[in-house]
Specification:
Blueprint (H helix, E strand, L loop, with lengths): L1 E4 L8 H20 L3 H15 L4 H9 L6 H11 L8 H9 L4 E6 L3 H11 L7 E4 L13 H10 L6 E5 L7 H5 L3 E5 L17 E3 L5 H5 L1
Parallel strand pairs: 1-2, 1-4, 2-3, 4-5, 5-6
Helix pairs in contact: 1-2, 1-4, 2-3
Length: about 220
């Protein structure tokens, strides 16, 4: 049995990364424009809740009438490369230690440097045989592509049915894994916990806590 984990909202709460990044951005804007950091931070969160991630910085800068050349680009870089205040879930640590005798991997989408930075500050790389950053292989190999899963299968010299994949996003995590008879498990936490999708796109099993992995796998 080979365990493969998603990263964001699976091993840690992604909203903690978002808030950490917003705090860094708010600090920078507060310094530049002499507005309270807390005021800017709260506005960033409010815009995120109301509009999603797409244009948060643009909307906030327009709201406060912040005007500076390359400001949005600078804010994106601050957000992406700040020192994040994030922690791995306590139950995740317990699960990783419990399965210490098994091969474990992470397959994660997103900007390579951002995701690598998260791994660094979560201090979890030692738990895994290898971490696959899908963007390294091109956006076309982001999930639901099985490109990195196939690499794991070849490295382990195992069958598809020997793989177990734990993720949280039914829009992309499970559909192709299901076709290969990988055991798919959806963690019902984070921003995707209330998403309802067709059975073909959803995981075979659903859990509310990573500790319930033992009941399914064992």
């Amino acid at each position: 049995m080979v365990l493969i984990f998603d990263l964001d909202d699976t091993l840690y709460d992604e909203i903690s990364y978002v808030k950490s990044g917003f705090n860094a951005v708010a600090y920078h804007l507060s310094y530049l424009f002499k507005i309270r950091q807390e005021t800017i931070f709260n506005k960033l969160l409010k815009v995120l809740k109301e509009n999603g991630r797409g244009k948060v910085f643009n909307i906030v800068c327009a709201h406060f009438k912040f005007n500076k050349k390359n400001l949005i680009k600078d804010l994106v870089n601050i957000y992406r490369y700040h020192k994040p205040c994030i922690k791995i879930k306590k139950e995740a640590i317990k699960v990783l230690k419990y399965y210490s005798g098994h091969s474990k991997y992470i397959v994660t989408d997103g900007n390579y440097l951002v995701q690598k930075n998260k791994i660094k500050y979560l201090e979890i790389s030692n738990y895994f045989k290898k971490i696959y950053y899908t963007n390294i292989y091109g956006i076309k190999h982001n999930k639901p592509s099985l490109h990195c899963f196939n690499k794991i299968k070849k490295l382990e010299k195992c069958h598809w049915s020997d793989l177990v994949y734990i993720g949280d996003n039914p829009h992309k995590d499970f559909i192709n894994c299901n076709k290969k008879k990988i055991l798919t498990i959806r963690l019902m936490q984070g921003q995707n916990k209330n998403l309802k999708v067709k059975k073909i796109k959803d995981a075979k099993f659903k859990i509310n806590n990573l500790l319930f992995l033992k009941k399914i796998i064992n």
